[in-house]
């Protein structure tokens, strides 16, 4: 494979991790008769125990990691999310966060709710990484009000579904995705093989089974020319349908990059949306040193909405990140923070620009609210409700 020359060199220890994971993947290729679907490759690259990107203990977030997320950029994001949580707390007193990163979203949400005298009874973190669990634990247990609520970590849904709020920031894009391409005869599934030199390589075969059915259903009416290739996620609908195991009445707030189906599969977007992050460099080769880089693909929010409706959930709101944050008072949060610390005004303004501007995260990231059980609409999505765009 061609390694992008701008990527920093990994350390010997990092190379050893990737080499071990590559050998594991080659064994999986052999077990699959020489063709490992990309979805299975991505699952190994991200989640193989002790070796995958999210489970090997490497630094992910911040300047020393590979990327930044909205909660890492500024507590302003979590303060706005807390405003929406305040409205949704009418349905229950539990917040369950999927993932959680370094814990900064939880910390900023809880701090904002504490200032409003509206702490939930419980804040549960569903986190697979032992290292991130410990990072989250240290941050959250140091909060001055930590003993006023239950803060705990879970590996699966509670024994009895809770009532309240689910938060999922940049979770859907990391669910392993299938990959496909179009040729003169129809759709092909893209997968991973091993070449004569023992290196991982792309290959393709006719699409079948669930993949063929999903392609026929979701891409009906799209004029895609031979050579077009992209991704289609078969796991997101299962993830959405599983939400009622966690809460049986309340709201799930999802934040991720993506858009309506017509944008994700626009005929001019013929190289798909697959992207990889390593040391804040973006490139498109997921086969480069598996285990060391994040691999993601843009979310088809039309499909997420369809999956929610099929599962009996409600599409309670959909907006750009900028619209969501503005509707939930980010401007007032910014003004209050500047007044409290005038010396940090320039830094805070820069953080707000990253969250709001179209050239940054403002429009490429979306917010979606799903109602679970008998819930009313969320008025804080009304500033610019874009459900009709789906």
Radius of gyration: 21 Å
Average pLDDT metric? 93
Multimeric state of these chains? single chain
The termini sit apart by: 37 Å
Classification by helices and strands: alpha/beta
- CATH-derived architecture: 3-Layer(aba) Sandwich
Number of domains: 1
Percent range for β-strand residues = 15-25%
> Mind describing the biggest β-sheet?
8 strands, mixed
CATH topology: Rossmann fold
Outline:
globular
Give the C-level CATH assignment.
Answer: Alpha Beta
Number of strands: 16
Please trace the helix and strand order, writing H or E for each element.
HEHHHEHEHEEEEEHEHEHEEEEHEHHHE
- Total helical elements: 13
Name the poorly predicted regions: none
Q: Share of helix among residues?
A: 25-40%
Describe this structure in words.
The chain has 390 residues and is α/β, with parallel strands linked by helices. The protein has a single domain, classed as Rossmann fold, CATH 3.40.50. The chain contains 13 helices and 16 strands. It has helices spanning 12-31, 38-47, 70-73, 75-88, 104-115, 130-141, 209-218, 236-241, 261-264, 301-310, 321-327, 330-340, 345-356, and strands at 36-37, 94-98, 122-126, 150-154, 162-169, 178-183, 186-194, 200-206, 229-232, 247-259, 275-278, 281-283, 294-296, 299-300, 314-320, 365-372. The strands form three sheets. Strands 2, 3, 4, 5, 10, 14, 15 and 16 form an eight-stranded mixed β-sheet that branches. Strands 1, 6, 7, 8 and 9 form a five-stranded antiparallel β-sheet that branches. α4 packs across α5 (104-115) and α12 (330-340) packs antiparallel against α13 (345-356). The longest helix is centred in the N-terminal third of the chain and has 20 residues, at 12-31. The chain is globular, with a radius of gyration of 21 Å. It starts with 11 loop residues before the first helix and ends in an 18-residue tail after the last strand. The relative contact order is 0.15.
């Amino acid at each position: 494979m061609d390694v992008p020359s701008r990527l920093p060199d990994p350390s010997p220890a990092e190379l050893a991790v990737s080499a071990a994971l590559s050998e594991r993947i080659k064994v999986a290729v052999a077990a699959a008769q020489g063709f490992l679907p990309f979805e299975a490759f991505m699952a190994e690259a991200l989640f193989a125990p002790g070796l995958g990107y999210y489970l090997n203990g490497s630094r992910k977030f911040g300047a020393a990691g590979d990327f930044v997320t909205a909660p890492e950029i500024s507590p302003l994001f979590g303060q706005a999310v807390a405003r929406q949580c305040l409205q949704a707390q009418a349905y229950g007193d539990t917040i369950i966060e999927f993932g959680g990163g370094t814990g900064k979203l939880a910390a900023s949400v809880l701090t904002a709710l504490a200032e409003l005298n509206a702490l939930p009874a419980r804040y549960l973190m569903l986190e697979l990484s032992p290292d991130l669990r410990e990072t989250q634990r240290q941050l959250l247990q140091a909060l001055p009000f930590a003993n006023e609520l239950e803060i705990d970590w879970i590996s699966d849904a509670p024994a009895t579904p809770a009532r309240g709020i689910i938060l999922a920031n940049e979770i859907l894009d990391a669910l392993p995705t299938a990959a496909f391409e179009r040729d003169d005869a129809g759709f092909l599934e893209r997968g991973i093989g091993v070449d004569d030199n023992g290196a991982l390589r792309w290959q393709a075969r006719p699409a079948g089974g669930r993949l063929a059915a999903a392609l026929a259903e979701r891409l009906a009416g799209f004029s895609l020319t031979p050579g077009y290739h992209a991704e289609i996620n078969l796991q997101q609908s299962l993830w959405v349908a599983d939400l009622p195991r966690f809460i049986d009445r309340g709201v799930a707030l999802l934040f991720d990059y993506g858009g309506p189906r017509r944008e994700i599969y626009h005929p001019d977007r013929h190289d798909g949306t697959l992207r990889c992050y390593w040391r804040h460099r973006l490139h498109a080769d997921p086969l480069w040193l598996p285990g060391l880089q994040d691999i993601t693909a843009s979310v088809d929010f039309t499909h997420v909405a369809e999956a929610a409706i099929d599962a009996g959930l409600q599409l309670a709101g959909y907006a750009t990140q900028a619209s969501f944050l503005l509707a939930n008072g980010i401007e007032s949060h910014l003004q209050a923070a500047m007044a409290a610390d005038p010396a940090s005004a320039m830094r805070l303004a820069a953080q707000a620009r990253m969250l709001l501007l179209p050239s940054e995260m403002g429009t490429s990231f979306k917010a979606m609210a799903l109602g679970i059980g008998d819930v009313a609409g969320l008025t804080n999505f009304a500033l610019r409700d874009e459900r009709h765009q789906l």
